[in-house]
Design a protein that fits this description.
It is built from 26 helices and two strands. It is mainly alpha-helical. It has a two-stranded antiparallel sheet.
């Protein structure tokens, strides 16, 4: 029957048929099922060691007489504290009342004796079996099993499945069968979906065997069916995202050899541990990096099952999450939808990259047109999670009291500004690496671009500018300008509108209004754009080198250009407050904006722009020379 089912699957997805036929052997299936059943049995029996039997304490958790004995313990404790407090009071009173002090000491000794006798009674007597709350114990027993299985499901599916997928691609690449698969007439989505469903099939079988116990344990622990199904939905969406990322990593990072699967699964494990600790710390999602936390299922798991890891959890922290002030965390449907949309969005972009680089491993991960939509989408997400209503600022000026908290949008943006900058820097440098073509590609583009132009098309479609904006093989400098404009426009708008948004007249804008100044801040944004364009130009020039290690040269040169100047200035103790103009011409000019005049900053911007123009002039000449044919170069000599 299994082979018949596999044959039916082969008609729908041949790649899935290939994966299932190679893995669903009788011995492999038996091992997966036996290991799952054995693990469930061990988990069930492990919790039975705490079964409340005849030796359960009178003050134990499951003894119904516990409140009575705890009340007696509390009375003895309070009586002892009162006597000690009275004794201390008489000792500090002049003249000393010796008789009363001796009387109190005698009473304290009696209380100690009474407490010792009570403790002895508790240690020598146990809770009657008819007074044990077995219903409560079984509920917590099933809850322990349910939560343990939930955590096992997350780590097993996401970490082990990631390892198997990356290892499968590495093995196919090493054997040469991956190129054979690329030549098949199947669609990319069909092939990659077949791998996602077929490669981890034994893990799916392992989890599927434990799913009935997971559901039964959840219902026995009085967990709503909707919550269990919600957990499964988030877990499935997480698997699709992680497995898609694993496939992309396996296709694009082929230089790690046998270490590649361990690197990918280790990164997944580290991410899950990090986000699990963040979820356990009870941190809220009112920050721009909330989307990053939502890529892990632990936030939603913690919300659905508050007793996870036996710590108190404030569900209001996740229920208050907003997106451009829209309250999307007020109910379960909104939170589940938020997780699924977040997973779906980033999975979509991963699949766009997968479809491009699967057939042609040398192609860029994203086209220039796709990169524009990616940058726009990322800015909407970052600013959407940044702009949330939260009482985050405590002004110290009248008419506010010291304990008063208000919502200050400017303060909210300032608190998230460092994360906005860091993410956009990673995004921009990543786009430079992705979109910058190597020497042969640029040479072909410069040499044969005019052959691809058709006379019947419009002038705009044949223009060089359109080719620089959307062309696959053209240098990415114009595209980087568009990316930088998209990234910096929200920041520039905020700098201009910040005083208008300061409706509470708070002092948190002193740095922008009095220290730096809005005009200087805008010029600082211009310095950022110019520097990023210089880095993009240098990277493209390095990639036009004839050496085979041009990528390492590009990374090393950009790294040196970014970090060496501030490092040298710091080692020479050149402080921005004393030598502001020196820092303005370094790769970290923003440190001296506060100490520089507007004309000086403008001159620094003009100087960096001149460097950018010279670099692009030399790059243009380099591209033109690279595009000349070998015959023309020989004739010119």
């Amino acid at each position: 029957m299994i082979h018949h089912l596999i044959d039916r699957v082969g008609d729908w997805n041949p790649q899935l048929f290939r994966e299932l036929k190679g893995r669903l052997k009788g011995f492999n299936v038996a091992i997966a099922v036996v290991l799952s059943l054995l693990g469930q049995l061990v988990l069930f029996l492990y919790q039975l060691q705490d079964f409340p039997g005849e030796t359960h304490s009178l003050v134990g958790k499951y003894c119904r007489q516990r409140p009575f004995y705890e009340q007696q313990q509390s009375q003895i404790f309070r009586q002892s504290n009162d006597l000690h407090r009275q004794l201390d009071g008489y000792r500090n009173t002049q003249p000393l009342n010796s008789d009363r002090i001796q009387e109190l000491k005698s009473q304290i000794a009696q209380v100690k004796t009474k407490n010792s006798e009570f403790e002895s009674y508790l240690s020598n007597n146990f809770c009657p079996t008819d007074q044990l709350d077995m219903q409560m114990w079984w509920r917590e027993h099933w809850e322990y099993i349910f939560l343990s299985l939930s955590v096992i499901f997350i780590f097993t599916l996401l970490v082990a499945g990631t390892y198997l997928l990356i290892n499968n691609l590495a093995t196919e690449e090493r054997r040469g069968t991956l190129n054979f698969i690329r030549l098949t007439p199947q669609l990319e989505t069909s092939i990659l979906t077949g791998k996602m469903l077929g490669v981890p099939i034994l893990i799916y079988l392992f989890i599927f065997t434990a799913t009935p116990l997971h559901f039964i344990a959840g219902r026995a622990a009085n967990i709503a069916t909707s919550y269990i199904l919600s957990f499964w939905a988030v877990l499935v969406a997480g698997c699709i995202f992680f497995y898609s990322a694993a496939l992309l990593f396996g296709l694009c990072c082929r230089g790690f050899s046998g270490f590649q699967p361990w690197l990918g699964s280790g990164a997944a494990l580290l991410f899950l541990i990090l986000t699990m600790q963040i979820a356990l710390s009870g941190s809220s999602l009112n920050h721009s990096t909330a989307w990053f936390s939502l890529l892990s299922p632990f936030d939603m798991t913690r919300y659905l099952f508050p007793n996870l890891f036996s710590r108190r959890y404030n569900s209001e922290l996740i229920e208050k999450v907003q997106f451009f002030y829209i309250p999307i965390g007020t109910n379960l449907v909104g939170l589940i939808g938020l997780h699924l949309l977040n997973y779906g969005l980033w999975t979509y972009w991963i699949w766009e990259a997968l479809k491009r680089c699967f057939r042609n491993p040398n192609a860029t991960i994203l086209s220039k047109g796709q990169s524009y939509f990616l940058v726009a989408c990322s800015q909407v997400i970052l600013w959407g999670f940044t702009i949330q209503y939260i009482e985050n600022y405590c002004p110290s000026t009248p008419p506010y009291k010291l304990s008063c908290s208000i919502h200050d949008l400017n303060y909210q943006i300032q608190q998230n500004f460092i994360w906005l900058v860091l993410f956009n820097l990673v995004l921009l440098f990543g786009l430079i690496a992705i979109l910058s073509p190597h020497r042969q590609t640029v040479q072909d583009w410069a040499r044969y671009r005019h052959h691809n132009l058709s006379g019947h098309q419009s002038v705009w479609k044949n223009s060089l500018l359109l080719d620089l904006i959307l062309g696959e093989k053209s240098p990415p400098l114009v595209a980087m300008v568009i990316h930088l404009v998209m990234v910096t426009t929200p920041v520039a708008i905020w700098i201009l509108l910040a005083p208008i948004l300061n409706v509470h007249h708070s002092r948190n804008l002193n740095w922008l209004i009095n220290d730096v100044g809005r005009l200087n801040a805008i010029l600082g944004v211009g310095l950022f754009i110019t520097l990023m364009m210089i880095y993009a130009t240098i990277a493209q020039k390095m990639l036009l080198m004839k050496t085979a290690k041009r990528s390492f040269w590009a990374i090393g040169t950009i790294g040196a250009a970014i970090f060496l100047p501030p490092l040298i200035l710091g080692m020479l103790h050149v402080e921005p407050s004393k030598y502001a103009i020196v820092w303005l011409f370094s790769t970290f000019p923003w440190a001296s904006l506060e100490y520089s005049s507007t004309p000086t900053i403008f001159m620094a911007l003009l100087g960096e722009f001149s460097v950018l123009v010279l670099l692009n002039f030399h790059l243009r000449k380099q591209v033109r020379l690279a595009g000349e044919s070998a015959t023309k170069a020989l004739m010119s000599q």
